[in-house]
């Protein structure tokens, strides 16, 4: 008979060593219902030659196992191994140019047999683990290595638990492992030695060659099953963006859409562009989605197969492809944010922080008279009439001085810290840090809809910057410096 969740739950602990016991362990019981595990009973017989309970000195009798068949199934799942490889498989099936599809999610709707799931932290995802526990699963969490970021404790814990089960269980059964790591071989060999059958369930490209060879040597007791055809049964793709902030550098807006951006459209567009993205359909204040005619595409910052940086290499190509598909309707996030009506400001109510316009960011800070006196000492020599009148003092924001050293920065205009660098930078370099795209020529040139004054890229030699000689007046390809 198949193993139910109640069969695997602990029925008590050993009165000698406090080990958790199930009905499938070798257990001795006294008249007062005190349980003794097999190891403690063997030690008592070897050293004391007695069959008495350690707690009450009553005689011990063995508990008969529930049955002697081979239908008991114990499931062990390596969550990280299955999860990472599933995202890789999803990216391959969708013909994406990135290694993994970060939009993939597990589905917990279907009923699955009882088992033990092994995960790791960080990141802390207690809500996910709790949902799995509510389904009747036992969840074991281990910490990742602070140096390598790997989770070897997960594999070691699985091997230890499986070895302890097959060694201490009086009945024979079946071990089902959802993992393709070669680290599982010691546990599998022990299971085969104790005449337990073993099944491996994993994605095709994730099963190690060592496991395949071991399965070939034990065809009747060990089987490997491939999960690739069942990917859509246990996962789904999250096409909706639900983070707190919209990333400006990898966001594209399609304006005035005349179609419904459903999941079918997203899937086809993602396969054509070769990159995963999620959408945000509009502010929550629009009760009817049709009231918001623009759709915001947020592309995932995933690792590319060619190992090139997404924002520097792939995003520009995606922007051009979208512009060809939807001419005149494509905008980047900074331009869209600048031209958006202040009353219809992009905000996500309680989920997102409201986005300030450029005017609000550059405006001066105003203080009332009461605020001024609460922050500073009272101003002397004020007339009584002036004290009674309400007045407003305006002062500019004081910027913190970041420069700490007078030495010129060795990275010059290529410094990643930019205006926050503590070393000295020239005025030309500081100007470039405020206009960091001016070292690239605009792709559309004369056809650019923003024009030379508003476009983020260079349109002429006058507003072009060279990162070789670190000066304005020409691009790097036209630099006279050898």
TrEMBL record:
Q: Does the keyword Ligase apply?
A: no
Q: Which domain of life is it from?
A: Eukaryota
Recorded hits in InterPro entries, A to Z, give: Znf_CCCH
Name of the protein in question: C3H1-type domain-containing protein
Q: What GO annotations for molecular function exist for this entry?
A: zinc ion binding
What organism does the record attribute this protein to? Pocillopora damicornis (Cauliflower coral)
The organism's taxonomic lineage, starting at the top: Eukaryota, Metazoa, Cnidaria, Anthozoa, Hexacorallia
> What's in the keyword line of the UniProt record?
Metal-binding, Zinc, Zinc-finger
Q: Where are the zinc fingers (C3H1-type)?
A: 431-462
Per its UniProt record, what SMART domains does this chain match?
ZnF_C3H1 (SM00356)
Q: Which residues form the C3H1-type domain?
A: 431-462
Does the UniProt entry include the keyword Zinc-finger? Answer: yes
């Amino acid at each position: 008979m198949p193993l139910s969740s109640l069969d695997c739950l602990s029925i008590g602990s050993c009165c000698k060593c406090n080990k958790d016991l199930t009905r499938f362990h070798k257990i001795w019981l006294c008249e007062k219902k005190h349980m003794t595990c097999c190891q403690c009973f063997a030690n008592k017989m070897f050293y004391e030659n007695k069959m008495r309970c350690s707690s009450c000195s009553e005689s011990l009798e063995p508990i008969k196992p529930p049955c002697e068949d081979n239908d008991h199934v114990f499931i062990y799942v390596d969550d990280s191994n299955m999860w990472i490889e599933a995202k890789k498989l999803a990216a391959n099936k969708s013909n994406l140019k990135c290694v993994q599809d970060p939009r993939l999610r597990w589905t917990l709707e279907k009923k699955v047999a009882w088992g033990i799931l092994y995960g790791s932290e960080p990141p802390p995802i207690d809500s996910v683990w709790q949902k799995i526990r509510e389904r009747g699963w036992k969840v074991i969490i281990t910490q990742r290595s602070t140096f390598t970021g790997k989770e070897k404790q997960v594999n070691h814990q699985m091997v230890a638990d499986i070895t302890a089960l097959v060694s201490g269980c009086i009945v024979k059964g079946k071990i089902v492992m959802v993992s393709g790591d070669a680290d599982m071989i010691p546990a599998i060999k022990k299971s085969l030695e104790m005449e337990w059958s073993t099944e491996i369930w994993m994605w095709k490209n994730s099963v190690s060659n060592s496991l395949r060879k071991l399965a070939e040597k034990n065809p009747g007791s060990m089987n490997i099953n491939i999960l690739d055809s069942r990917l859509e049964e246990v996962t789904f793709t999250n096409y909706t963006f639900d983070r707190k902030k919209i990333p400006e550098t990898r966001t594209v807006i399609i304006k005035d859409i005349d179609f419904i951006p459903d999941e079918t459209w997203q899937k086809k567009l993602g396969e054509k562009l070769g990159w995963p993205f999620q959408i945000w359909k509009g502010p929550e204040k629009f009760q009817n989605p049709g009231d918001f005619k623009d759709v915001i595409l947020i592309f995932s910052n995933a690792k590319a197969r060619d190992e090139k940086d997404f924002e520097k290499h792939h995003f520009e190509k995606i922007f051009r492809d979208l512009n060809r598909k939807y001419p005149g309707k494509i905008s980047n996030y900074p331009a869209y944010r600048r031209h958006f009506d202040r009353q219809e400001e992009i905000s996500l109510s309680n989920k997102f922080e409201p986005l300030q316009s450029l005017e609000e960011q550059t405006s001066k800070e105003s203080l009332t008279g009461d605020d001024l006196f609460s922050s500073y000492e009272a101003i002397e020599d004020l007339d009584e009439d002036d004290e009674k009148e309400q007045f407003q003092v305006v002062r500019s924001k004081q910027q913190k001085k970041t420069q700490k050293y007078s030495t010129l920065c060795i990275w010059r205009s290529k410094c990643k810290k930019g205006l926050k660098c503590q070393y000295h930078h020239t005025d030309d370099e500081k100007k470039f840090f405020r206009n960091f795209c001016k070292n690239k020529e605009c792709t559309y040139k004369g056809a650019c809809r923003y024009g030379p004054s508003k476009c983020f890229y260079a349109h002429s030699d006058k507003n072009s910057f060279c990162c070789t000689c670190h000066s304005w007046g020409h691009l790097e390809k036209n630099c006279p410096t050898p």
